Amino acid sequence: MVITVRCAKNGITNSVLNYVSGLDAARVRCDLVALNEPDGRARALFERTGGQVFVLGGRNRNPIGYVRSLSKIVRKRKIEVVHAHGNSATLVAEMLAAKRGGAQVRIAHSHNTTCRMKLADRLLRGLFYKNCTGAMACSEAAGNWLFPNRTYELLNNAVRTEQFRFDPQKRAQTRAALNLAAGEFVVLHIGAFNAQKNQAFLIGAFSETLKRKPGATLLLAGDGENRASCETLAARLGVERKVRFLGWREDIPALLSAADAFALPSLHEGLPLTLVEAQCAGLWCLASDRVTKEAALTPLVTFCPIADEGAFAGSLCGAADADRAAASEDAIARLKTAGYDVLDNTERLMRLYERLSGRA
After folding, report:
1. Contact 86/138 with Cβ under 8 angstroms?
2. How far apart are CA 224 and CA 306, in angstroms?
3. Does 151 lie in the same domain as 90?
4. Is the pLDDT of residue 360 over 80?
5. Using CA of residue 302, residue 162, residue 329, residue 153, what is the dihedral sign?
6. φ, ψ of residue 66 in degrees (nearest 5)
7. DSSP 90
8. Tell me, what's the pLDDT at 151?
9. How far is CA 260 from its chain centroid?
10. pTM for the model
């Protein structure tokens, strides 16, 4: 596995770790190549399969050195399958390194519907397609972005569905720990503070929500480059006491149980894991109309344009009341049937590796 973004709390990393957590070590030895040192949990998941972790910095600053280093790893470790995760044709670096190192199976996996390096992506597409032997995507939207008019394999962004089942005890404990009143309307957002996740828009929309629901609270779980500016915006709008910046949290299932609505105003998404997790918790979800409709795996998801903060606020105020336990039960059943449970998904992935490498 090669992760081409920082190995941290983000969608690509979490998806990869979910895949690896379900691998059978008797069938797959899985190494990790990352741009930075992963945390202990991530390292342990790969080492459990007999794999090793390699940290290679400078992918964009020194692409030639990166390709050489990665090809040496592939050759030394006798890697048969290189599975690289990203969102643009800059994945050609991993494809070339894999080919140079002797890997016959070179899979590029698309996780989004656009990229930041658009000029490089456009220039590299021809070379990228020539050296990629397998194409995968987390959704049709992500696949059509990176592999237009080409064949690709869909691999769902799966989660451990039972881990996110609604828990009334966790709800009560978490709301008490956060000093949230029993009847307080709580909106939750989870994501890195960056342009894609669009938290500034959400804060503006929530300030409008407070005009109709003055007792509401917005919880923002995450961190990143735009957090400080979002904190400044909340203060400028006079809602700083109603918007809580939680930082990265390890108790995401508990936060989902504690919330009454989940908001995802992203500018673009492949297929967001957080939205899958929120549905498992039986949580009513309001997503931007820029998020792929494939993410609506249950009736719990509503899409809303993000051109108008007032309209988004109006939709938030219309959050549907539901029997959370029943909604969670129904959602988990739907997700398992649709192939979004980790164990089913990784079995499919292992069979794919075995078939492509001639070991089926």
Report:
1. no
2. 22
3. yes
4. no
5. positive
6. -65, -45
7. G
8. 96
9. 21
10. 0.89
